[in-house]
Protein 1
Amino acid sequence: MVIIGSGLGGLLCGNILSREGFSVCILEKQSRYGGNLQTFRRGGHTFETGVHYTGSLGPGQTLHRYWKYFGLMEALQLQQLDSDGFDIIGFPGGEFPLAQGFDNFIRQLLPFFPGGFDSLTKYTTRIREVVNAFPLYNLELPDGHKEHHYTGQSAVEFLNGFSRIMYSSGGIPLSSVLAGNNYLFGGDPVTPLHMTALISHSFISGAFRFIGGSTRIADLLVQKIQQAGGTIHTRQHVTAISRSNDIFTLSTASGEIFMADRVISGIHPAATLSMMPTEIIRPAYERRITGLKNTVSSFILYLSLKPGLFPYPNYNYYFHETHDPWNETGFRGEQWPGMFLLTTGCTQPGQEFAETATILTYMQYDETEPWHHTSSGDRGAAYLDFRQQKAERLLQLVFRRFTGLKNAISGMEISTPLTYRDYTGDPEGSLYGIQKNFHEPMLTSVMPRTKVPGFYFTGQNTNLHGLPGVTIGAVATCGEITGLEYLLKKIKNA
Ligand SMILES: Cc1cc2nc3c(=O)[nH]c(=O)nc-3n(C[C@H](O)[C@H](O)[C@H](O)COP(=O)(O)OP(=O)(O)OC[C@H]3O[C@@H](n4cnc5c(N)ncnc54)[C@H](O)[C@@H]3O)c2cc1C
């Protein structure tokens, strides 16, 4: 069996299937495995690339229950974010904590929205109700497709139902606060209700950073795959997939050939299908998948900080210049950036000062269109100039809130949509892959099983992005091969 891509999805599938006795070979285009789990070092500091925090890792919570089976829980060092505010949502005129624990979530927001008890109760009840309609989030077998009830509903409409409850001194509606961390799912108004509910539920249940970085997850998974006899080949960029007599042949850019009776693709479905001839894949299916819109891309600053100057915030900070967090993904020119997320790495428990800060905001891929034929390290002076100007503009906004940060910076790396396009292979450097759309829930979903016998998808485009979403997606993919009931039983008993 060949797995394309060594992101979390590919590695989890490799882990499950090698332990189940399958002969697993993972092909990864980069020189290192891990995809978005990779960290990088600059100025003596470690930076996350695609995992800043995760939800539901507390004992008994969804991700914890899954990751116990993968042997991750005993080996990872976690930093739980502040119970009374794992995310702080800021607007000009007010800052609001999103707290862990459902009752505490209500309790912490209530002083800002004194008339909002019923609304906040309705909000937490509703997101729990949505999660209960997704049995795999409770390690149960899917039944009756109750989830379809929510995939066709709008997240914006749900949250706008709370717009009459106002923070009186700033005129800020509760709906904007509840949508304040919608960067977590790409901030598009077509976002389905289930996405916001599953993701918010996960963080409210328990929000954590990985001490030392999330790359440890990839290291542990790779170790276990190798112990079970699986192999991982880096620098193997799959460029073509063909099939004859029930055997797949995968060619890589280095000229090597790999053959397998089963293939799991852990990369973007459009990129996968572009490598397959029309004899294998129906043109209508390819047209549907390649025609789907992707989530917006990002512009990110990775700041190295001087020691002892910037107090370590044990929370993430989201800032919005206006009260409409659903209207920011398309900002450009004078309007850009309009929002930012500031997050910090954690190097040890009880950390007093931050060693790094990462600032994330949206950027449309077409802003980098003039350089889309270039590759990393060779994009030219005009690109470097563009990047620098954008960085300065973003920092101006950040310094308005974090005045002390300016003097604490000792170094800066910058990434643009092109960086992520070339790093993960996601078209247009998209943050989270295919944009799920509540108007077309079925059309924007990719099933793990395809019409090609022996060919499967996994990764963030199948179930949902983010660590819990990709984990559950990997179990669903492997369940197609081993039997889902059998696999869930093993996971529950781990
Ligand atoms: C900036 C950013 C911040 C994020 N922050 C968070 C967060 O705080 N918390 C959270 O839970 N989630 C976060 N996410 C989302 C999360 O990182 C992803 O949903 C998840 O890691 C995706 O895993 P994956 O296995 O689907 O794909 P990826 O991690 O993208 O892995 C795909 C792998 O396939 C390889 N590949 C691609 N094409 C080929 C090819 N042709 N041949 C061989 N190999 C190939 C790539 O090199 C890569 O290693 C963030 C994402 C981004 C981009």
Note: The first strand starts at residue 2 and ends at 4.
Protein 2
Amino acid sequence: MNKNLIPENYNSQNLVSMWRNFIDWDKRRIGEGNFLVNQFHKHNVKKVFDAALGEGCDSIYLIKQGFDVTSNEIDKIFLNKALEYAKAENIELKITSLDWRELDKKLPEKFFDTVLCLGNSLSYLFTEKDQIDVLNQFRRILRDNGILIIDERNYQYILDNRKEILKGNFHYKGRYVYCGKEVHAYPIEISDQRVKMEYIDKRTGEKGYLILYPFKHGYMKNLLHKASFKSVEQFSDFKSGENINADFYQYVCIK
Ligand SMILES: C[S@@+](CC[C@H](N)C(=O)[O-])C[C@H]1O[C@@H](n2cnc3c(N)ncnc32)[C@H](O)[C@@H]1O
């Protein structure tokens, strides 16, 4: 487990304890404006595979909306946090703890109506081979015409403005995906190969870190086509189309 993954991205108690405030669960829902449920209705989704559970924000919400959700998390600290939050809301999570690159060892083909890989998660992987292998793994467990919903940060903005950002001028609306007011994140190292993000809780000064792979403009779309999805629709901060000023891009990909 965790082979070729950056060890610094795992077992960070600090990061996990800040994550709920970093997201702001209510504001994430306001920001997406029913995007997920609308897509699910459009594509007749009932069975969901949330590939990156994190601390449970999306899985818990979707279970409450009546979907049949399987939630995957390989990081024990994130998983325990999600179980704690679910228990507090009297919700039972159906858990798997699989590395995305090995889903085929445990999960049947064509089993799910949708796979979610949200919160900028694919950028934990640093090689194109790993990224495409994982997209193929996701496609494999989708039924025909099922949908992968995946997102990414607007890394091109970060790459293009690295000098200004490293001086402290990181522009981020904070209205989509990661919306917390008390926990902020900004890049502290930027290269074409990796971006190191620092997360700080402004109330306590507590810090956490993640090292992520910065997808360039067009890279994700290209990956999705290489992974043979028959159609890919791009959204920018949940609005159809491409806006270079968006903070996050979402892709709805049909198998
Ligand atoms: C940035 S967190 C996002 C969590 C959540 N979806 C959210 O929106 O807050 C990234 C997640 O991807 C998971 N992850 C990263 N690489 C993985 C891999 N190779 N296999 C399975 N999970 C992985 C991490 O454990 C973590 O839960």
Note: The radius of gyration is 17 Å.
